[in-house]
Amino acid sequence: MADFETVRHDVLVVGAGGAGLRAAIAAAADGVSVGLVCKSLLGKAHTVMAEGGIAAAMGNVDDRDDWKVHFADTMRGGQYINNWRMAELHAKEAPARVRELEAWGALFDRTPDGRILQRNFGGHRYPRLAHVGDRTGLEMIRTLQDHGIHHGIDVHMEWTVLTLLTDGERVAGALAYDRERGRFRVFAAGAVVLATGGIGRAFRITSNSWEYTGDGQSLAYHAGAVLQDMEFVQFHPTGMVWPPSVRGILVTEGVRGEGGVLTNREGRRFMFDDIPENYRAQTAADADEGWRYTQGDKNARRPPELLTRDHVARSITREVREGRGSPHGGVYLDIAWIKERLPNAAEHIKKKLPSMYHQFKQLADIDITTEPMEVGPTTHYIMGGIHVDGDTQMSTVPGLFAAGECAAGLHGANRLGGNSLSDLLVFGQRAGTYAAQFAQAHAPVAPDLGQANEAAQQALEPFSRTTGEGPYQIQHALQDTMQELVGIVRREEEMAKALSQISALSARAAQVAVVGNREYNPGWHTALDLGNLLTVAEAITRSAIERRESRGGHFRDDFPDKDPGSATFNITLRKGPAGRMELSREPIRPMPDALKQVIAEGG
Amino acid sequence: MTTPAIGTSSGGTPRAAGAQAAPAESGQRPATFRVWRGDAAGGAFRDYTTDTAPGMVVLDAIHQIQAEQANDLAVRWNCKAGKCGSCSAEINGKPRLMCMTRLSDLSLDKPVTVEPMRAFPPVKDLVTDVSWNYRVKEKITQFTPRPPDAPDGTWRIQQSDVDRVQEFRKCIECFLCQDVCHVIREHHEETEFIGPRFFVYTAALEMHPLDVADRIPALKRDYGIGFCNITKCCTSVCPESITITDNAIIPLKERVVDEFYDPLGKLVKLFSRAHRG
User: Fold this and answer.
1) Displacement of CA A145 from its chain's centroid (Å)
2) Contact A330 B13 (CB under 8 A)
3) DSSP string, A298-314
4) Which of A23, A92, A175, B97 has the most CB atoms around its CB within 10 Å?
5) Rounded to the nearest 10 degrees, what angle do helices B263-276 and B250-261 cross at?
6) Which residue in chain A is spatially nearest to B129 when comparing CA positions?
């Protein structure tokens, strides 16, 4: 058996985006030793891309806002299959987490009286998003990073976890490799927090970077944890569509929050054509009311462009399918039109949306202050993930915690914009705190080195194959399968076809060959990521087949309506004894009357 | 050109320019990229010819080469939108982000050279060891806020005070400014000099409306601000267009001068600080 270098921490955090950093800070604050493992350099995680803001009911701009309204908005957006306890904790604790960031040096835009400014966003009843122009994610990750480095966290940059290790029932650490040299190392830890983010790379068109290969979901699943709600993938309505090389890169919802409108090739503002019944009372009657809402008129209702992301994405898909799309297969997003309403509109746009201005100018030769953008849906986020306890964030495996995108529950069937950054802070903090408590309360662990050995051997197999396919072809084929067969609009027979393709791709992945050596070899890294991608692709597809209705991010062409009977359960998955994926319908716990009351009043 | 619906069928894709050969995008043509391959022990340029299409950036070409011709070609990247600062390299000799360098801005008549940042130790191919930057940041005195302004523990800050430092806070830590700085690149004063990135960082802290720590003595003594002779190379390569020299370094140099070489000013400062405290 190989002799592994072993590094020991009380708490091991996997992933250094917002959730991982916040968890590491929380655990370190409890006095335990903390290791933070991340695939990229510190500060490069996807949190950096978040643009819009952090949702927190501080009531700085509209004092009618409070946690109850935020809770009700989150539940409505999630179509009521959210973990209501998480939605409650999130709404209550987000303001404190935002203020804490300010105490650590984050600088948010301000109200005239010097408090944190909050902006409108889809699905949020009141202006609620603390923000810094359109680069809130950068401000957040840099603040956490710069705070964290002074608080005794051992950061292991460019290390990738291959497998979780257990000690009996408990999680006991992980086996990882470093990108630079391809060395293996055992991280022994009394508690592990997974904060690995999403699964976007399972699809062809995505806003996600190479890192988002479903690592956390897959690691947890193979360690015996339960996954939940995997059918709910969020396709963000506005990704870039042209030029091809930037297809999928996000265009912030903030553009619409600042007054941007969606039009089709006929110039029609199509979002007014189909407003869901449960949002009708909150939606503007006409363009003028919508504009007044974006400019802070408290008596105005929101424009239909700020309906929930699932609805906007489907509306765009409809326009394109029915032949009313823009030249490159999207629709138009126009912020330049506000010059009809505002003096100095160009300067205003550059100030409010600087990175969007920059992004379109440099990557597409489009000046958004004078021309409309072309946009279309892009795979952005997964609402589902690792099933966790709402209070502690512990999974069904003792000592294994999860926070942020890789955990399930808060967002239900659809996430509201701005609720992601607040999710990272609220549940990152909780996961870190409870992981530290768990590690302190339990005896030291002895990770199973047999598991480490097996994973290490398996990881090296691709080097021993002299013939065989390269990893990129398999990854691309999987992305095509998911994009075409398990995308925004789903049908049973297409998904069944996807399952058989995934199975065939798994067989190909088992024979993948890589060239070169172990030192910083992206081909090898891509080959190692394939297993995680295939696991989450199968989980998404199986769950999507099982949910025979349309709800939130999950739209079934063959079951286009919401089924009230399906509002009572979450779909869960676990690895069965024979290694097969087993599905079940987990009844949703009844909501306490007090919370029902909040929804009834705030609804 | 016909374009299929998004997310429902196959169509123009981020890699359509490559193996899948997009339906004849106008302007598609092959180009040669002269990429440095090697590691700490040494290396050499190798030529790769690949198809290019309108809108492509250098990072797309590198990825295409990686997927089709050189699976083990090492490169860092994340966001592909100029926001994370991972894909720094030297393109035709100029420090730039690969994801923000469009092929249409380069001449494709001759090979495009792509090499790693030369100021940092090579790891492999386009990847360098930038860990020094992370160690430097740790030694800079961290953010230290004044006591909260309001009983609920919050502060009151004017937007104009926020705006003053936002320029510095835009930094994506691509380290191109460090790469181009001759104090680091040629003179290797890494132990006594923190480099432009961290002068920007220090400036952001010093001009933060809530911060009360004093980093001026350290700027002179430990951070080596005196080594900078304001050639503005850093400013010229910043992908975020931060006016590093004029807005960060020169004001910091002035503060150092005020503190150490202006006894009268120092007295006034001490006096006002005592009152403020």
Assistant:
1) 20
2) no
3) TTSPBPGGGS-HHHHHH
4) A23
5) 100
6) A180
Confirm whether A430 is a catalytic residue.
no
**Angle formed by the axes of helices A522-546 and A471-485, to 10°?**
20
What confidence score (pLDDT) does residue A8 get?
97
What is the per-residue pLDDT across A495-537, written as a single tens digit (0 to 9) for each? 999 999 999 999 999 999 999 999 999 999 999 999 999 999 9
A124 is catalytic: no
* Alpha carbons A238 and A251: distance in angstroms, whole number: 5
Task: Verify whether the Cβ–Cβ distance A48 to B83 is below 8 Å.
Answer: yes
Domain A459-569 has CATH 1.20.58.100: yes
The fold of A238-377 is: Flavocytochrome C3; Chain A, domain 1 (3.90.700)
For testing contact with chain A, the best of B1, B37, B51, B83 (most A CBs within 10 A): B83
- Which spans in A57-185 are helix H? 67-77, 84-103, 136-148
Which residues does chain A have with pLDDT short of 50?
none
Average per-residue pLDDT for chain B: 88
The whole-angstrom separation of Cα A483 and Cα A199 is 13
User: Under an 8 A CB cutoff, do B78 and A147 touch?
Assistant: no
CA distance B116 to B108: 20
Q: What DSSP string describes B139-178?
A: TSPPP-BPPPSSTTS-----HHHHHHHHHHHT-----HHH
Contact A402, A196 (CB under 8 A): no
Q: How far is A405 from chain B (nearest CA, A)?
A: 17
| Residues A327 and A374 sit within 8 Å (Cβ to Cβ) | yes
Choose the closest CB to B6 out of A139, A330, A363.
Answer: A330
CB A460 within 8 A of CB A436: no
On chain B, the residues whose CB falls within 8 A of the CB of A487 are: 7-8
Q: Which residues of B touch A523 (CB under 8 A)?
A: 66, 71-72
pLDDT band, residue B2 (cuts 50/70/90):
very low
CATH 1.20.58.100-classified regions of chain A: 459-569
pTM: 0.93
